[in-house]
Amino acid sequence: MYFTARLAAPRIVGYSARMDGKRIVIAGGGAAGFFGAIACAEKSSDARVVILEKSPELLAKVTISGGGRCNVTNACFDPKILASRYPRGGRELIGAFHRWQPRDTVEWFESRGVKLKTEDDGRMFPATDKSSSIVTCLIHEAEKAGVEIRKSCGVAAAARKSDDGFRLALTDRETLDCDCLLIATGGNQNSIGHEIAASLGHEITPLVPSLFTFNIKDRRLEGLPGISVANAAVEAVGTKLRQTGPILVTHWGLSGPAILKLSAWGAREFAERNYEFDLLVNWLSDLKRPELILKLGEVRAQNSAKQIGAFSPVEIPSRLWKSLASGAGISETTRWGGIANRDLEKLADALRACRFHVGGKSMFKEEFVTCGGVNLREVDFRTMQSKLCAGLFFAGEVLDIDGVTGGFNFQAAWTTGWIAGTSMAEI
Ligand SMILES: Cc1cc2nc3c(=O)[nH]c(=O)nc-3n(C[C@H](O)[C@H](O)[C@H](O)COP(=O)(O)OP(=O)(O)OC[C@H]3O[C@@H](n4cnc5c(N)ncnc54)[C@H](O)[C@@H]3O)c2cc1C
């Protein structure tokens, strides 16, 4: 509908760069679009590559990513282990990572003058700690490779032409013909990229948010924001969803890597439950219940005159310990010697199976990704070309691919963008 309306008085625009050769349009000037465009233009001397970005800003998410530092990738160099960081898309990405993985990303940026550094948890950032280093590099490399970049000019619709290729209706009311179209419009729910993919025959797996924190109103967490526990385990009651890692208490509930991973793996299930479910937190994931009860019994025997609140027997912050003990009905002035065996069990459960009700979600530092998108069964991951529509390619978050935090989402964008770009150059 939109397409035909826009074509009422078409002005077919040309390509300002190379005059002959394949005409390649990249819809979306984000990480995947830029990487695809550069790979294509560098590989093919005669391809005319245009990036169409609907907003006035290029690489906007790269700019704000990682708190302005841009977590470019992760120092995880084994394709199989790397693929296991993707709740959706991991299986399809294994082969793709054999062709373009974090090592290639690092080499790509470093050979172009952007040195990357690795933090203790494997996350990789530009050594400058500034996302602008990445943005400047990508724009410079695109221009150097002869990519034409048009801002404030999006793709509104695409139709297959009878003689191969596509006719695009642009948001500025112009039309543009191309031989190959790479849809790299990201995962935003209101992006028209999914609509275009659907209009060309693709199924779109429903879109829901991934990577969020849990809203929990509970007295046991009151006054504790900022407190973190390094080795915790979390489990969504009534599901098979479990994760381990650090947890952070926030003003709204719980966050930290274990929670974010759980939110990613459970993105669809939590959406179906309208983000209402019970969560079991094990604050001491490396201690089994019988061992813990034994340990608490020994502590009781050796510290009978000490008050519960004055002495935390386990490796969690003392304020959390007091709050959990009080939640188990044991006041902080109670002496260890006065604790009955059944109270020891209650304490053990408060530490190992602490139940909270989650009543909603919040954003994690504004970072989020989308679960859902172009159905992966319909895309050939050797080329990133549609299996349904020749000449149509996909890269980045528009696909039903998302990873946990740590640089994995950008890595998927670099990998799929690079494969799509080189494939478009080759056909
Ligand atoms: C605040 C924040 C921080 C993040 N930090 C990190 C991080 O540090 N590390 C990490 O790995 N991941 C991070 N992510 C996730 C990461 O940003 C995305 O996974 C990644 O940007 C996806 O790249 P993309 O190119 O597929 O999509 P996008 O970056 O979303 O780019 C898509 C582009 O297409 C444009 N567009 C949309 N529709 C059209 C259209 N019809 N025509 C033309 N253009 C169109 C959009 O304006 C946009 O510029 C973060 C996300 C957010 C929101």
Q: What keyword list fits this structure?
A:
binds flavin-adenine dinucleotide, FAD/NAD(P)-binding domain, alpha+beta, 7-stranded antiparallel β-sheet, 427 residues, 33% helix, disordered N terminus
Structure report:
This protein has helices spanning 2-6, 31-43, 60-68, 79-83, 90-99, 102-111, 131-144, 193-199, 257-265, 267-272, 289-302, 318-327, 341-352, 408-426; strands spanning 23-27, 48-52, 73-74, 116-118, 123-126, 148-150, 155-160, 166-170, 175-178, 180-183, 204-210, 212-215, 228-236, 242-249, 253-255, 276-282, 354-359, 361-363, 369-374, 379-380, 385-386, 392-394. Helix content is 33%, strand content 24%. The protein is built from 14 helices and 22 strands. Strands 17-16-13-14-15-12-18 form a seven-stranded antiparallel sheet. Helix 3 (60-68) runs antiparallel to helix 7. It folds into two domains: 2-208 and 369-426, FAD/NAD(P)-binding domain; 212-366, no CATH class. The chain starts with a helix and ends with a helix. It is α+β, with helices and mostly antiparallel strands and 427 residues long. Flavin-adenine dinucleotide (FAD) binds at residues 27-33, 52-55, 60-61, 64-66, 70-71, 154-155, 184-186, 191-193, 366-369, 396-397, 407-410, 413.
